[in-house]
Amino acid sequence: MKKIILFIVIFLVSHIGFACPACEKQQPKILRGIAHGAGPEGNMDYVIVWATVIITVLTLIFAVKWLIKPGETEENHIKRTFLTFE
């Protein structure tokens, strides 16, 4: 199972973040070679993207935190089913 997850992670990382030459020319200098498609059309696009990134990262942090240390003390709580590493 660990090998499958590792393969998927390596596969996704190797295919994310490489722009084709046509898209590379359309991007601003800071995003060149990273993103596909047309570049941001204004400063508001950057604000929207960074707000989305911050919300996503905070959601991930809290989800992992509460999954690992749920805070409930009952042994039959639903979160305990995810914490059994068998």
Share in β-strands? under 5%
Class from helix and strand fractions:
mainly alpha
Mean pLDDT: 78
User: What is the alpha-carbon Rg in Å?
Assistant: 19 Å
Shape label = elongated
Distance between the termini: 12 Å
Please give the count of helices: 4
Give structural notes.
It is a single chain. With 86 residues, the protein is mainly alpha-helical. It is built from four helices and no strands. It has helices at 2-15, 21-26, 43-68, 80-83. The longest helix is centred in the middle third of the chain and has 26 residues, at 43-68. The chain is elongated, with a radius of gyration of 19 Å. The chain starts with a helix and ends with a helix. The mean pLDDT is 78.
Give a short overview:
With 86 residues, the chain is mainly α. It is 58% helix and 0% strand.
Task: Summarize the SSE layout with pairings.
Blueprint: H1 2-15, H2 21-26, H3 43-68, H4 80-83
Name a few traits of the molecule.
mainly alpha
